[in-house]
Amino acid sequence: MPDFGEAERRILNYFVRGTQVVYRGRKMTVREAGKPTCLQGEPKTDIYVLVAEGEETEEIKISYKKENADFLENKMNAIRAEQLFGTCWRRIIENSTQRIRGEFEKRIRIYKKKFMRTEQGAITLGWKFELLNKPGGDLSGKMNLTPRQVYDVYAGTNLSADKKNAWVNGRKIENSGVAEYILVTDGVVSAQDIIDRMIPMEQYIIAHPDIYFACKALNYRTFATKYDGNRPLAVQVDWKIIDGKLTSDLIFDHPLEKNGDEMAGRLLACMNRLGIRTTDDIGQNNADMRKVYQ
Q: Which among 149, 169, 189, 232 could disulfide-bond with 145, CB atoms 3.0 to 4.6 Å apart, if both were Cys?
């Protein structure tokens, strides 16, 4: 089965200039097709097609998903969150994580031994925030969004100007990055097949009104002395020293405003003061053991 990039290119290859399709009941000819791009990140439109009937033209802007795709946004930061959710983005994310606060509180934060997919020596710095079209584990839930906000997430209507007015085949096209259709398939056979299968965004959202969030841990790996990037964290682990012991609290009210570097800096400062290099050095004498897997 082709990967996403290859599948996307196959779809584009069907829209060769001069190809004829029936679009909105009219026989039209493909004049141009391409993938919208921008300097950073990606627009919501994956396939841009310009069709014409005589001198009259129509734009077809498609967001493409494979049938097994679940991620809608997997590198969420504060700028992207505001573009997707508007000015109340902090409250929306905090309300989401607070609803499952108990699940966060139950989580182990120090792993002296390997536990499931978490490697030995890991210490949690916090949790990243991702959007999905279905639930994604224990640290997951349904977003409390209006239909308009759901539409904005899928279509990209609130994205920054460079993502909305993306570049196609070397020229900037206004609103080319705002998707109007969604195509969910692993295989198509022609340009007309694509036109017939794509679903208007409004119609798709009526059938799929729910968006889910999932939070994935960012861990400092003490034996490797590194972590996987300076990612913004929706919920952070505030490491501190109380009565000579390494302990921690969770921060929910600064979603995506503190990142991996800041939280790792706090952790490492505490570890240095206590003479801790790896989780092998952690014990009853220098750490609160209630959140330690050993």
A: 149
Cα gap 119→135, rounded to integer Å: 24
Q: How distant is the alpha carbon of residue 294 from its chain centre? A: 32
Tell me: pLDDT of 4 over 80. Answer: no
Q: What is the per-residue pLDDT for 2?
A: 55
List own/partner pairs for 3-10 with CB under 8 A and 24 or more apart.
Answer: 4/66, 4/69, 7/64, 7/66, 7/186, 7/187, 8/35, 8/46, 8/47, 8/64, 10/188
Determine phi and psi for 206, rounding to 5 degrees: -60, -40
- Cα distance between residue 152 and residue 169, in whole Å: 25
Q: Report how far apart the first and last C-alpha atoms of the chain are (Å, whole number).
A: 41
Give the CA count within 13 Å in the CB-facing half-sphere of 293: 17
Count of CB atoms situated within 10 Å of the CB of 264: 20
